Amino acid sequence: MSPAEVERLVRDVLIRHLPNERGRREGPSELVVNISARHVHLSPRDLETLFGPGHKLTLDRPLYQEGEFAAAETLAVVGPRRRMLPDVRVLGPCREYTQVELAFTDGISLGLDLPVRRSGDHRQTPGCVLMGPQGVVELTSGVLRAQRHVHLNDRDAAWYDVGDGDRMKLRVESSCPMLLDELVVRCDPRYKLEVHLDTDEGNACDLTNATKVELLV
Which among 67, 70, 216, 71 has a CA at the least distance from the CA of 150? Predict the structure, then answer.
């Protein structure tokens, strides 16, 4: 084990178990739970095909994670038999690949059997047609239902004693209380503590009117 790895392990243990200057253990960051509505991530190449050469995404509003934003641009997502979802929001910044993230009911509306995948896992996923103001892109894969997940930075991951790829639970207290299993842990030093659910999951547990949310290992 390298000195850097030893230092990281010691730091994680200290963060989790030692008291702070007031004699209390530092707790995790404030938990934020957000509903991630249907959206599209575009590659630079597909962005130019759909919106024209040299086009850059226009900021509409920043998202909770640093550097990520909802763009002003929207697309029509077309499935089999010409079923369509209009005005699907593009999220920025651009990625290396184009990916369409929908809820289960969106898939039913389009006539697509959506697999649940971690973002970027396009194995055996269906495709669709994206229609923009300047062009059309036909995807052979990349349409999925994003697996519910939680973003954690190093300190929060150490507090909960989890690592990237682990699973956690989310307890929601509301008019429809629910315990959601199998939240995939996604760790990065840049992340802020945040859970992402899709619209079906958020509606099922009445997240908008929740009185308490709690992460469990």
Answer: 216
pLDDT at 163: 96
d(CA 138, CA 143): 11
Place of tokens 């194995």: 123
Tell me, yes or no, if the pTM score tops 0.70: yes
**Paired strand residues for 153:** none
Going by their DSSP bridges, the two strands 128-131 and 167-173 should be labelled as unpaired
Q: Where are the alpha helices (DSSP H) in the chain?
A: 3-17, 44-51, 104-110, 154-160, 199-204
Is there a contact between 157 and 193 (Cβ–Cβ < 8 Å)? no
Domain ranges, ordered by start, for the chain: 29-33+148-216, 37-146
Q: Kindly report, residue by residue over 125-151, the tens digit of the pLDDT.
A: 999 999 999 999 999 999 999 999 999
Burial class (CB in 10 A: 0-12, 13-18, 19+), 89: middle
pLDDT per position as a tens digit, 60-70: 999 999 999 99
| Burial zone of 99 (CB within 10 Å; 0-12 exposed, 13-18 middle, 19+ buried) | buried
Task: List, for the chain, all residue ranges whose pLDDT scores fall below the cut of 50.
Answer: 19-24
| Domain 29-33+148-216, CATH class in plain words | mainly beta
